[in-house]
Specification:
The protein is built from one helix and nine strands; from the N terminus they run E-E-H-E-E-E-E-E-E-E. It is mainly beta. The protein has a domain of about 100 residues: Immunoglobulins (Immunoglobulin-like), CATH 2.60.40.10.
Length: about 170
């Protein structure tokens, strides 16, 4: 049996596959193989044993058709009695067909409508009293001392030369 639940936000469908324990036995390993997993046992959807049935779910792209079958214990094929259709294969068997309609993705939720607010009437301009400029505090005066320079020492008079002494 198959159950389809289309997503409201994505173009996908959650498909739940199920088989009764009467169809396959109580302690079986059941997987769903099909075109959506390349008919691979390793990639197959494992159905878990729920007291009276085996069940498993996966998401598939909406708007597509898939072929599938149930494989039991790795060697026996079982068809779904509730498949949308069946397709003959070159191996003298029939695959189950799963047809998923194109999902209509709901538009993103709109923001709540806001009421149009009438513009407020402009209030009469208030006569503002001119602001008096705050007096500025005087900056502290900084006095600098003039650099004192030392007077250059007077040059010594050149000592008289020996020839000058004779005069």
């Amino acid at each position: 049996m198959i159950n389809k639940q289309y997503s409201k936000t994505k173009p996908v469908c959650k498909v739940t596959f199920s088989l009764t324990t009467e169809q396959v036995g109580k302690n079986a390993e059941v997987r769903v193989l099909g075109t959506f997993n390349e008919w691979s046992w390793d990639k197959g959807l494992v159905l878990t044993n729920k007291k009276k049935s085996y069940e498993g779910s996966l998401e598939l792209a909406a708007g597509a058709t898939y072929e599938y079958r149930y494989m039991v214990n790795g060697h026996s094929w079982v068809n779904d009695e509730a498949a949308d259709d069946y397709h003959a294969t070159p191996f003298f068997s029939h695959n189950c067909v799963l047809a998923l309609d194109a999902a209509e993705v709901a538009a993103a939720p709109k923001a709540p409508a806001t009421k149009a607010v009438a513009p407020k009437k402009a209030a009469a301009p208030k006569a503002a009293a001119p602001k008096a400029a705050a007096p500025k505090a005087a900056a502290p005066k900084v006095t600098t001392k003039a650099a004192t320079t030392k007077a250059a020492a007077p040059k010594k008079a050149a000592a008289p030369k020996a020839g000058d002494l004779k005069k």
